[in-house]
């Protein structure tokens, strides 16, 4: 085959004829390259392989020459490899990805390009390939990270997001443990998400930072880079304040190297990522370091998102209080004022009776005022109960979304004179308490908007359990409006959208002048409600 590797004809150039290269020179280049090169005959048998190919395949050259190349691929790929080789021999070549199977059962992801040539009247197929296992792993890890990161804008609890990120870091690097910790204003670690952390790790982190131990990722942040301590196991023990953390790590892990990366957002240190690697690994790979850095970046975004969500919820709570105050003024306060007027009228008429005025003229007025007082008292009592129900933080959690909406719909219908009907399953929905509470508030806001601004004759609320989602629809037959223009209730709609965003739900509004309004809330990926006393 050595002649096949060379060119036995001189090449004419501007500088004269150049003699053909020595086949030994070309063979030396192929032997020295880091990419695998193999040659096979028409019967799918190995004819030759360079050292890099043998190294990647985990074989010796003498063990494969004359054997079918399918031995180097998983059985699941055999049919496709035969088809690809037949196309190659017909001149249809290209670049491909696949998986090598080593004799020890391990698999290696490769990318290769192929070609076909003739020698001595026979056709041969050649392939040049390289190991892309680590690149493939990083790509898969990035996809996993993207999936994990989706939990943050979906309204996931911050510590759950941090735990998912930490677990992703531990899965996709060689780190024994990964932690993403947040610091309070006093620079003390009191909460975070961790994966692979030994017992007592969190408490040790808090103890070290509370004692004034210099948190490594603070230095990292101000230095503007990640820090890799190849001798962290020794260096941390030089500071007595770090002994609690060292003791916990040493008792459970055979570790050596530490990586510290700041979790920061817009110039502020929010916390940091710490990853501890096994003894014998003096430094992580560039891919591992890049992956951990990306994790820290995602943690920063998740932390900032959680802060904004809390601020939004506080603003929504204030707006909710203002709405309840208006309801109190418009309903109960007005009823109490009317009760006062009727009570005064009845009192005056009773005084006139006591003064001897004719009873036949005064008694009907007293009865009318007392009857009005009785009706107003009942109405005010119902209104107060409804408002108290809204103010109770556990009301929806106790009754469930459909029951709570039905309770409020009855009160709102009595107050407004417009029928408000609620339909939905009687069993509890498979959503957590926080999601259910926000869905309840969104539905009430939509109903109140319809009653106040739509001039509707009927408002309907429909809750449907779709299995993997919950659909909540509020519809009115009112006058509708142009959603692109300024309109009454636009602040309430903004609050509804903010609530929906905070729980990862989709909120859609359909309306037009004269066509009524439909507000649809879709809660995706419904989960069973947590049982009392359960923990994540």
Automatic annotation (TrEMBL):
Keyword Transmembrane helix set for record:
no
Q: What sequence ranges are listed for the domain PAS?
A: 22-73
Q: Which UniProt keywords apply?
A: Coiled coil, Kinase, Transferase, Two-component regulatory system
InterPro entries, per the entry? GAF-like_dom_sf, HATPase_C_sf, HATPase_dom, PAS, PAS-like_dom_sf, PAS_4, Sensor_HK_TwoCompSys, Sig_transdc_His_kin_sub3_dim/P
Coiled-coil regions listed = 301-328
Q: Which GO terms describe its cellular component?
A: membrane
Against PROSITE patterns, the record matches this protein to: PAS (PS50112)
TM spans, by residue? none
* MF annotations from Gene Ontology: phosphorelay sensor kinase activity; protein dimerization activity
Keyword match Transferase: yes
Q: Which PANTHER family match?
A: NITRATE/NITRITE SENSOR PROTEIN NARX-RELATED, OXYGEN SENSOR HISTIDINE KINASE NREB
Q: Which NCBIfam families match?
A: sensory_box
Q: What is this protein called?
A: PAS domain-containing protein
Q: Which organism is it from?
A: Streptomyces bungoensis
